[in-house]
Queue: 2 jobs
Job 1
Amino acid sequence: MTDKIYYEDQTHWSDADFYALWRYFDRLAEYVGPTPAQLQQPEHRSARISARKHTVRDEELASIDPGQMPAESQWLLRAVLVSQQRYELALEKFPNLGALARAVPSAAPRGYAQYPASVRVALDPVEARRESMADIVASWDLEGARPDEQGMQIVRDYVDGKTSLDEALAAVARRAERFREEENS
């Protein structure tokens, strides 16, 4: 099994080695199947190209044993599949990849800076929360609803992992209700 890059011992790997691993996974993920967008627009060029790749690497994908992979390989493969919107399809087609759901992120993934933004977001829960909150705050700004300092603190607490999404949404809802009450009085 050690003939595949994703099973190798990564103890002495450089950033370039992790980049090579990402490139391998990035290409391998394209063989999983179509993305949701490709299913919606099968006539689009990317869907037509992708259609020729399906099933070509099924044997390799079905033989992957995440339990034999170093933790960083597991987490990176999961991140690549998520970033390409193929994770759910991969789990459906290849039950052996179900173990990726239990992959534990590394505190500081090596090679992180050279991965595309979509992979970095999938690798780093804090980055994912930051990206989603940046989009939400930008949307608020477009609507003229710029949050005050207390509102931004709720956002920062969520991004930092101090509160869950449900707690942050509840706090925002309570603040909105107080603002409505003040406006009506």
Job 2
Amino acid sequence: MIDWVTAIIPCSNLNISRLNDGHICRINVDGKVEWSREIGKTIPGSYDSNIRISSYPISSGMHIKVDGNPIKWLQGHNLFGSNDLVGLVYSVLIRLSDIWEFKPCEKDLDSWRGGLYRVTRVDCADMWEFRCMEDVTSWLSAAQFQSKSRHGRPITTGGTLYFGKHSRRYSLKFYCKGEEIMARGHRISPDLPNNEKLIRFSKNKLRYELVLRRPKLEELELDYAGAWNIKTPNILLRSFLKKLDLADQFRLTGEKYRFLKPRLQVVFEAWKSGTDLKAVLAKNTFYRYRREILKHGVDIGIPRNNPDKDLIPIRNILDQEFIRVPKWAIESGLLYLPKID
């Protein structure tokens, strides 16, 4: 799916005064303005999602700069969405023309429909499904120390794993979508239909995002929107994924694990790794732990014959297919499908 777009788009008939939301300027000690820059307008969309529009005059005529997440602006969330870059941007522009009550000229409409404009940033994204949220965080923890890219070792910030975080060309990031949508500034609007169902859907998902900036877009010859098609985002996501060096394995946590008290989690983990707990714990302690863990359907009195069966190569998960949009989401109108008329 397309998760973010920054584009420079022809828009001749729009009154640019509508886009002025103030100025940022630098004033020297003598009180002289050294430079001044207009602040673009933040336009609210579906369910409190925003997109930023600013004027961008160039020699070929009046243009606007569109910067934001088109699918989130149109449908109110970005758990899943469309791969149609041109269609999404066209839908945003048509909705903006309705909001601001201006009629685009035919030349501009042709440019919008054909993607005849530059893009300076495009984010592509998709997700994989795990058994539970704890398995997602286990994968992220393992990948933090057992992976690298041409940028070197990844950086973890706020639960997100970044490869090339500060690169001016491209970067990759991975995070637990279930955790992200519960964080401040990322929560799904309570007014969105099936809000609770969407939250449950996100809990066991590993999110993967590819951020492409202008130098990389130019190198790939994808700096014009018309160069993109429906297949482009997934091809790019898979292609850049192959550039990662992922080694070793990570251990699945198991859904039962998350319900144990902290002191029992250590015992459970030791049993999973093949330790004979009856031989290392005092008799009363062993039976007390066994009794408590047995409530969750696990008998630590039975030694584990194959302690490595929960170990999975890190790349195995990434070789799986991306998730499909659930049928209930399509039927309830939670997936916006752009159309160009």
